[in-house]
Each structure stands twice: as structure tokens, then as C-alpha cells.
């Protein structure tokens, strides 16, 4: 069944921009669908990537476009320490190497060896836990897009004396590269074990935050990205994201359903 949506904005807007904002697909995917003649406005097929949709007009993505958007693959992997998220430097092992049939949990296709599955939100080589690998542009935007409201949860073991003053600084008031960090939720679970919940993901952020207050990270374990929970997925194993999980991810990224 074709997808239809009526534009309810106040001013005309480029079709690719609107589709990107609504989370239907990325701008690049929208441009590709338009070029292939798979998008229409009020029954008229459009071919100009710069075309604007007017208030009250109805946009339709035909069945072929719907199938193309649903064909992206998203993998949830329990990354062990020692693997890098993306393209590795010489001597490093990319996490995508773990995507083999013996490591799969549940049903679904095993990605081809040369499949393009970039990491959606990196996890350092010396960190472990939930890593998403995806060719789905909508999922990528939901997780790492500038407007995403997803939070990420980490369990962190530190070396050093944890005080309430240090926890207060970790929660709010630190800067990296001269820019203030967004407030974080940081709680002490055990004497040397902390829980971090962040809404941003700067390079090695938690490790650098801890260094600023005199703590050293010994173990960093990501257990959640938005509504996605690592759960009991064994280390080194992977599974496909379900359609329901994809929908929940996109909905929560837009600040809905919370």
C-alpha cells in the first residue's frame, strides 16, 4: 500500500527537506526516489529535487519507494573490546567482521562480506557493548542526526576516589575543546561503578570527562541507545533490528512516545 501524507505546514518547503524532517527517509534518499519517479504530489509525479510542497497538498510514495526504504538493514551487535567501529587503521579489526552466521542470534539474512554497514554512533576500541551498524538512512538520522533526542546509557568502572563534588561536575559544568557539555545524568551504583546517561556523543567523551575530575575509566559498557537495550545478547553476537524496534527508535528520536 502506497504511503501518503498531507503537508500541514504554513509555508512551502522542499520535498526532500520535509521528508527528512518527518523521518520518512533521509534527504539523500528522498532525492533518489524523486529522480526515479517514485514520488507524486496530488497525483502528479515530480522529477525536480528542488520541488516544493504547498500547504494542504498530499505527497505519495508508491509501493516501489516503500520497498526501497524498507530494504535498509540494521544490525545490533554486542561489540567486544579490541574491535573498532568503522574503517580500521592497519592492524585493527573492524566490528563488521563479527557479522557471520555462527554469531547471529535469531532469524534473518547474514550481510554479504562487502556489504556497506557503517556504524551509527561509534564505540571506541577499548569500550564494549551495544553498537548499531546500518545502511538505513532513517535509522542513522534517528540516532546521530542533529535533532535527535535519543539518550545513551553506559555502565562505567573507574579508578580513583569518587566524591559527590566530582559527580556534580560530571553532571554539569564540564567543557571539552572549549565548549560546554550538555547536562548528563550520572549516578554512583557501587563505590567504583557509575551509570552515565548522555544525549550527545563527542569523541571519547566519558573517558575525557572522567579525566577532568581525576578519575580513570577502567571499563566502559554501553547498554542502551534510546529504546534499544542490549539485554542478554552475548558478547560478539549480533541480531537484526525488528520493525517494531525501528519504529520505536524513530519515534523516540523525535521526542515522541516518552
Produce a short descriptive summary.
The protein is an alpha+beta fold and 258 residues long.
Question: Which properties best describe this structure?
Answer:
globular; Alpha-Beta Plaits; 18 strands; alpha+beta; 4-stranded antiparallel β-sheet
Describe the structure.
The chain is an alpha+beta fold and 258 residues long. It folds into 3 domains: 3-70, Roll (Structural Genomics Hypothetical 15.5 Kd Protein In mrcA-pckA Intergenic Region, Chain A); 74-148 and 227-253, Alpha-Beta Plaits (2-Layer Sandwich); 152-225, 2-Layer Sandwich (Pseudouridine synthase). The protein is 23% helix and 28% strand. It contains 7 helices and 18 strands. The protein has helices spanning 15-22, 27-35, 63-70, 137-144, 164-171, 205-212, 243-253; strands at residues 3-6, 13-14, 39-41, 44-45, 52-53, 58-61, 74-79, 83-84, 93-94, 128-134, 152-159, 175-176, 179-180, 185-190, 193-198, 216-225, 228-229, 238-240. Strands 7, 10, 11, 14, 15, 16, 17 and 18 form an 8-stranded mixed β-sheet that branches. Strands 1-6-3-4 form a 4-stranded antiparallel β-sheet. A hairpin with a 2-residue loop joins strand 16 (216-225) and strand 17. Helix 1 crosses helix 2 (27-35) and helix 4 (137-144) packs across helix 7. It is globular, with a radius of gyration of 21 Å. The two termini are 29 Å apart.
